[in-house]
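Lecture 7 notes: from sequence to structure.

We start with a single chain of 211 residues. Read the sequence below before looking at the structure.
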Amino acid sequence: MNDKDYSSIHDAVAAYYDGKLREFGATSKGVDWRDESSHILRHRQFLYLLGDDFEASVCDLGCGYGHFLTFLRAHGYRGRYIGCDISAQMLEVAKQQHVADRNHEWVLASRPQSANDYLIASGIFNVRRGAELEDWERYIFDTIDVMFSACMKGIAFNILSTVSDVAFRRDDLYYADPIKLFERCASRYGRHIALLQDTQLYEFTLVIRKE
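Now the structure, written as tokens:
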């Protein structure tokens, strides 16, 4: 994936989240989640991938202000954390929020810059911001390919689900068919894959392990 191919997508998404950060600060609403409890619930889904691999390195693609790093440390993870984001403003806040944590790195990028044990992405495939459907889906599929290539053990990501209440859907967001995306990923990455859609959230999480 060439970053230049998606510069318009990145610019629109970064501007959107910069606006949320200005409005709500370093809070769950500041990264466009409904509240703290749903934010943490999303993090918990990723524990299915990480398990008790406490020394593993984790790259968080679309890290925002680093809330997942706080969550990981609270659950005993001691490995290196790399937070990547396309918003320089988000990363500045992340740096301020995590001064005391020494085993981490912040990277202004739309893709991982190095190989890590695990890669996770939370919410980065939802905010379509007027992009053409074909372009947005190509962006999603290319990003997942990059994530899987850059991981040593596995990846996980969440995305809004078409198995949801149509009346509450937003036109500026993207909703994926969980079965179709599961099948596509299984055909490309192998059979070690899990689909999680067992929370009250209108989304699902895909967990893919390297064979």
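The chain has a mean pLDDT of 94. Keep this in mind for problem set 3.
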